[in-house]
Amino acid sequence: MNSRERILGRVRRALADVPPDERPYEEAVPRDYLREHGKRTVEETVELLAENLADYRAIVHRADAEELPLLVMRLLAAHGSQEAVVPPELPPWWTAAADLVRIHDRAADTPQRLDRVGSVVTGCAVAIAETGTVVLDGSPDQGRRRISLVPDHHICVVRVPEQVVASVPQALERLDPTRPLTWISGPSATSDIELDRVEGVHGPRTLEVILLDG
């Protein structure tokens, strides 16, 4: 008997007393979650997103289409980035004003190579106001998961209001569960046993979110 057969045997024994007519789990557990907590206008939802992002120590900016390229340029320059990773279909005009080397997301790039890149600029799939979370799904304007985890500085552009939802249930309705989802609430952070916070351990030390109006 191999390990697989032993494990399946234990599962069968544990389920031996389950009546055959028992309702399936997905039917037995009620799914009556609130779709959102309270009613808000679109602008109030966007403001709540900005507040919760900042509460998680993300740096939040507001910009329109005319301001965005210059803002991205300033953020990259302030971080001292001479190179930035860009997904394959990131709108070129987002970084058009920046004087830097653009590293295109490629399978051949090693984690060591990405670690030498100062910043990454991505779009997002959806942003959740109630939790201050941006979600990436590996779409062409977001790239592979690793490019948003290895560089130390992440600039994420959220289109407002179309990419902003109030709650997690609303976000799940927009997301494809078969895609590689990355849920980001603030910069990467962890604490040791003495609760000393350390940022940048499992991902970017600095997260800057640009809310792109219109």
TrEMBL record:
Q: Which residues form the LUD domain?
A: 109-212
Write one Pfam family the protein is assigned to.
LUD_dom
Annotated protein name in UniProt: Lactate utilization protein C
Which species does this protein come from? Streptomyces malaysiense
